[in-house]
């Protein structure tokens, strides 16, 4: 499924993230996926698994937060929930990056549970995977953190404008 590509036009041709009712539905669909991914320890996750493109989800969250704030219904708990959902968009990455991070994590976990001496662990395929991918996995983590902070600032920016 392409995030927000031609499939979006087929699935939801009239969904407008600026319309409060449509925005609510977009946020609900994204929240379901996010909760499923978090509870299934699937982060980072594939961007093509999102029910809508990131910009559509961002706009829908902004619309929803604005509507709730203007109506006096935006509680601290809801604000925190929306902020988390907004910043978690940073953890939806291209498939090959998700695969790299997943394999890196799997190799690291495998090394922690193996009861080998340190010199023997360096001869395993898990060790080789860590050595080969550690720099790139670190860069992906760094870029994701920077994007999450950017999204957090963006969230606070539009919240302050309400």
Please summarize what this structure is.
The protein has helices at 6-11, 20-39, 54-70, 76-88, 95-113, 118-121, 125-160, and strands at 45-46, 92-93. The protein is mainly α. The protein has one domain (6-160).
Task: Please characterize this protein's 3D structure.
- This protein is mainly α and 162 residues long.
- The protein has one domain.
- Helix content is 71%, strand content 2%.
- It has helices at 6-11, 20-39, 54-70, 76-88, 95-113, 118-121, 125-160; strands at residues 45-46, 92-93.
- Strands 1-2 form a two-stranded parallel ribbon.
- It starts with 5 loop residues before the first helix and ends with a helix.
Instruction: Using the alpha-carbon principal axes, give the shape.
Output: elongated
Largest sheet: 2 strands, parallel
Going by helix content, strand content and strand pairing, the class is mainly alpha
- Encode the helix/strand succession as letters: HHEHHEHHH
The overall pLDDT, averaged over residues, is 89
Q: What percent strand?
A: under 5%
Number of strands: 2
How many independent structural domains? 1
Distance between the termini: 34 Å
Name the poorly predicted regions. 1-11
Indicate the radius of gyration in whole angstroms: 19 Å
